[in-house]
């Protein structure tokens, strides 16, 4: 990005006015300024939006996640997301809310280099990795419950296994904008759960979003077979099971040289309910 004043989708997290890039900073008309790190991202997370000193996933977790994803184990999901977003108009703006280290945005950039991509994550380590991987995109450390984004500036929002505030998504979406959410399907990583839990249970299907109309639903299902302790450990460290599972079972799992498990992604695409009269069922545009 050029180091001169230029329009962005970012809004000042203090006063919600437009941020412009000036001399290595994002600055608003009320003179609130936010430095741009050498990796190209800005920290737009206010102190009162944190629950800890360094919220979000740690660098170790991010490194494991990056290694696992670069191994191609979730490539079918990345391909499906690229297919869903293929019909977005030229130069459309897409925001990945909870972008992690930027894997899905990077995959999408290969298919649609014209898209204007942005990502936010509450983890500084995650955003730093994402900005390094995708310098042509815009990234910010921010809360998905307080999006530092101008209203009605985004054509599509993506959330992959990430929490977020749906009212905030409605606010930042353009008219006829789209929200795509990836949830764990009922059988997601069930083979992993069988090792950790005595009585593993399937994931419950998520409820529909209030204020949105679902326009599409797809499943991505396949069997994943991991070879080597490193790959198994990488998968474990990027899941909630790492923190919630039985410690003895986790130790056993980390020592496995092979793991076979189901992968089950549920993708739901939504549009704000008030805009549904202009949208044809099953499309994402």
Percentage of residues assigned to helices: 25-40%
Radius of gyration: 19 Å
What is the terminal-to-terminal distance? 27 Å
Major beta sheet summary:
8 strands, mixed
Task: Assign the CATH class of the largest domain.
Answer: Alpha Beta
Gross geometry? globular
Please characterize this protein's 3D structure.
The chain is of the alpha/beta class. It folds into two domains: 36 residues, no CATH class; 234 residues, Rossmann fold (3-Layer(aba) Sandwich), CATH 3.40.50. Helices cover 27% and strands 27% of the residues. It is built from nine helices and eleven strands. An eight-stranded mixed β-sheet has the order 4-7-6-5-8-9-11-10. Strands 1-2-3 form a three-stranded antiparallel β-sheet, with no helix packed on it. A hairpin with a 5-residue loop joins β2 and β3. The longest helix is centred in the first third of the chain and has 12 residues. The radius of gyration is 19 Å and the shape is globular.
């Amino acid at each position: 990005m050029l180091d001169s004043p230029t329009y962005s989708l970012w809004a000042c997290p203090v006063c919600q006015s437009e941020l412009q890039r000036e001399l290595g900073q994002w600055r608003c008309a009320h003179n609130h300024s936010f430095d741009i790190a050498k990796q190209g991202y800005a920290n737009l997370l206010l102190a009162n939006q944190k629950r800890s000193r360094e919220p979000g996933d740690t660098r170790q977790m991010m490194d494991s996640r990056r290694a696992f994803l670069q191994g191609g184990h979730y490539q079918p999901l990345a391909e499906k997301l690229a297919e869903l977003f293929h019909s977005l108009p030229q130069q459309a703006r897409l925001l990945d809310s909870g972008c992690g280290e930027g894997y899905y945005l990077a995959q999408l950039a290969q298919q649609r280099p014209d898209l204007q991509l942005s990502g936010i994550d509450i983890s500084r380590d995650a955003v730093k990795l994402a900005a390094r991987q995708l310098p042509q995109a815009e990234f910010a450390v921010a809360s998905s419950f307080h999006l530092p984004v101008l209203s009605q500036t985004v054509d599509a929002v993506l959330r992959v296994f990430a929490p977020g505030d749906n009212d905030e998504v409605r606010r930042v979406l353009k008219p006829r904008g789209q929200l795509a959410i990836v949830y764990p399907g009922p059988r997601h990583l069930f083979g992993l759960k069988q090792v950790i839990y005595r009585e593993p249970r399937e994931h419950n299907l998520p409820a529909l979003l209030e204020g949105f109309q679902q326009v599409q639903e797809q499943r991505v299902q396949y069997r994943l077979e991991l070879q080597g302790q490193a790959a198994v450990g990488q998968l474990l460290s990027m899941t909630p099971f790492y923190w919630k599972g039985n410690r003895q079972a986790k130790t056993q799992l980390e020592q496995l040289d092979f793991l076979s498990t189901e992968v089950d992604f549920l993708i739901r695409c939504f549009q704000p309910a008030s805009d549904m009269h202009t949208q044809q069922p099953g499309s994402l545009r």
